[in-house]
Design brief:
The structure is a single chain. The protein has 666 residues and is an alpha+beta fold. The protein has 9 helices and 32 strands. Strands 21-32-27-28-29 form a 5-stranded antiparallel beta sheet, with no helix packed on it. Helix 1 packs antiparallel against helix 9, helix 2 packs antiparallel against helix 8 and helix 3 runs antiparallel to helix 7. The relative contact order is 0.13.
Length: 666
């Protein structure tokens, strides 16, 4: 157009362009606090001019597009760092309760262990025949059992909480992926001719951000402005218009442990899921919670085994071997849900000293068994024996009895997981505390119920100590067992070389064993077997000296209630290295657990701080491109207002010219 009409047309396009730009600016200002909103910009261009009278005259302007300020790389960084920060936050939140439970300054279990040994066992060792002291030990053992159970129950509650939160996270993920798929459809249908539904793109990106806080994801752009969303390990969640729902499903071995799987086919996805609430929960369970449960269970198993064995070595106030003081939880053996046949399998702890804090995978190929340590991935040393239809398997302190297994069967063995959860104090009668050693040694022999010592040599006979084996070169007394009274009589004498001796029961001529002693040496060990198991093993006494006289005698008699030798041995168990193949004590194992959890707690806090900082930086970088700057928008508002007013003035001028022209031709 040319002339007055051209002026009016150009001014009108300018007016419309300024009006659109003002609308875009107003929309930016209105959404300054809208989560996920990307600043919009109106893209303006000149219309193609027209040739009039040999000159090209402009035809005004137009709005080509309303674009959003967006950088795909920066947005992907926001999603990635959000997942990492959310996962770190979840681990840290879950872990701090475990830190407070096990490593806190007021941790009840540590206090209970110390009080049990220092106030309970030590008092009985000092006053073995005192009933109040014995009753106090019973009370301390019950308090210790309650404390162990309470700690284990809190860990179990945390495990139940993980299951519940996994379900909540999966529900949130399904809702988000369904909305993302729906938006894919709407965006695809509304995209075309160079226009894009910016608000829907922002809404979808915000949903993906929320999804990344639930689980680590990867986003791939597709045709039609659609996206596909995958988990960090490549499992599809959204493919165009289709979303793939998840569900929680019982673990193939342990139904009490939930896993994440596809709702449609049940394929388990848990392994490899990282980031977000979901990944954080799975990481916490596998790296913190279950190892803590196993470590606490091993302490409970070790305490029960050591105390019960020590009880069985000594004598109570009734002259009987001590009854078990504690009972720990069973070895848990769980069959795979896909196992065929009707295998029967059970397990027990046979050597607490050999226990690890690991779980195991047990596989049967039809002829051979293998056991894999799930913490290290290494095969455990496995011994196998068969008796009839039952196969007995031994590895790392655990014994399993299996029958009816089929080729391809697999099992998960949790040796210590429930050791603490089911830990109990079983001794209620204070007279049954076996404070006394099985024997006291005396020089001389019993005559008419009294000990008469007429020995002339300098030989001595120790009261002895327990040993699992008789030892090389020991004189084994097979005709009697602990605590049968015994008499050792020298059958020859001298001051050098070897002299002989024989072992009988007091008042009996039946010889139970004979042996020889090298004078001036380290002595000769006599081993008396225990008939009861536990403890099994032997009570070893040592005959030693440099001068022997034929006819000299020594008497081993059952200790009385005033003897506290076995109680002293019980007290020593607090620091005795009875766990980890003799590498650590009960006290040391608990210190290791506390140290491990405390270190994990510090690492979790550091990881959270770092992840939060990185996420904030990524968000700031993304917002520097996509965020609304009110100062900039205020400037734009004035700019477009002035453009609008100028265009309106041009229309006014054109109208005035047109009016003048009409008046001139009237």
């Amino acid at each position: 157009m040319s002339g007055i009409s051209g002026l009016l047309n150009n001014a009108l396009t300018g007016l419309q362009a300024a009006q659109s730009a003002l609308q875009v600016t107003g929309n930016n200002i209105a959404n300054v606090n809208t989560p996920g909103y990307s600043r919009e910009t109106s893209v303006q261009s000149t219309l193609t001019p027209s040739l009039y009278g040999g000159q090209y005259l402009g035809n005004g302007t137009q709005i080509d597009a309303i674009t959003r300020s967006y950088n795909s790389y920066l947005q992907s960084q926001v999603w990635s760092t959000t997942a990492t920060a959310s996962g770190a936050s979840t681990v840290n939140t879950q872990l701090q309760s475990i830190v407070n439970l096990l490593a806190g300054t007021n941790a009840g279990l540590s206090t209970s262990i110390n009080q049990f040994f220092a106030s309970g066992v030590a008092q009985v060792a000092a006053n073995p025949s005192d009933i109040p002291s014995r009753q106090n030990l019973i009370s301390q053992s019950q308090a210790l059992a309650q404390s162990v159970q309470s700690s284990a129950q809190q860990l179990q509650n945390a495990s139940d909480g993980v299951n519940q939160q996994l379900g909540q996270s999966v529900t949130a993920i399904n809702s988000l992926t369904q909305q993302i798929a729906q938006l894919n459809v709407q965006i695809n249908s509304m995209s075309g001719a160079g226009s894009t539904p910016n608000s829907m793109l922002d809404q979808r990106d915000q949903l993906i951000t929320q999804l990344s806080s639930q689980v680590g994801i990867t986003v791939l752009a597709q045709d039609g402005n659609q996206v596909n969303v995958f988990t960090g390990n490549g499992q599809v969640l959204v493919a165009g218009a289709q979303s793939f729902d998840l569900k929680t499903t019982p673990n193939a071995y342990d139904p009490s442990q939930l896993e994440v799987a596809y709702a449609a086919n049940g394929a388990v996805l848990s392994q490899g899921l990282q980031g977000g609430t979901l990944g954080g929960l799975l990481q916490f369970r596998s790296q913190v919670l279950q190892p803590a449960q196993n470590a606490l269970g091993r302490i409970a198993d070790g305490l029960a085994s050591a105390m019960n064995s020590q009880q069985a070595q000594g004598l109570d106030l009734n002259g009987q071997f001590g009854a078990a003081m504690f009972q720990s939880g069973p070895v848990q053996v769980l069959g795979n849900a896909g196992n065929t046949g009707n295998a029967v399998i059970s397990g027990t702890v046979v050597d607490a000293n050999a226990l690890t804090t690991a779980d195991y995978r047990l596989n049967f190929d039809g002829s051979a068994w293998t056991a894999t340590n799930l913490s290290t991935g290494q095969a455990a040393t496995l011994s196998t024996s068969v008796s009839g239809a039952t196969t007995t398997l031994n590895f790392d302190g655990v014994q399993l009895n299996v029958s009816g297994a089929q080729a391809g069967n697999s099992f998960e063995v949790l040796p210590t997981r429930y050791g603490a959860l089911n830990f109990q104090s079983t001794l209620t009668d204070p007279t049954k505390i076996a404070a006394a050693s099985p024997y006291v040694s005396s020089a001389g022999q019993m005559q008419s119920g009294s000990l008469v010592n007429t020995n002339l040599g300098n030989l001595t006979l120790s009261s002895g100590q327990y040993s699992a084996t008789s030892g090389a070169g020991a004189t084994l007394i097979t005709g009697a067992s602990v605590p049968t009274a015994l008499q050792i009589t020298m059958t020859s004498g001298g001051t050098s070389g070897s002299v002989g001796f024989q072992v009988t029961q007091p008042g009996s001529a039946t010889v139970l064993a004979t042996g020889s002693l090298s004078l001036g040496g380290s002595g000769q060990v006599l081993s008396i077997p225990y008939a009861n198991n536990p403890p099994g093993g032997y009570w070893n006494v040592t005959l030693a000296g440099s001068t022997a006289v034929s006819g000299d005698t020594f008497t081993l008699s059952a200790a009385s209630g005033g003897n506290g030798g076995n109680a002293q041995a019980m007290a020593a168990l607090q620091t005795a290295k009875t766990l980890g193949q003799g590498s650590t004590s009960l006290e040391g194992a608990y210190s290791q657990l506390v140290s491990q959890v405390a270190t994990q707690g510090n690492q979790a806090q550091s990881a959270l701080s770092a992840a939060t900082s990185v996420a904030a930086q990524a968000t700031a970088a993304q917002q520097s491109v996509s965020g609304v700057n009110l100062d900039e928008e205020a400037t734009n508002l004035i700019q477009y207002q002035q453009a609008y007013q100028a265009a309106a003035k041009a229309i006014q001028v054109g109208n005035s010219l047109f009016t003048s022209l009409l008046q001139a031709v009237q």
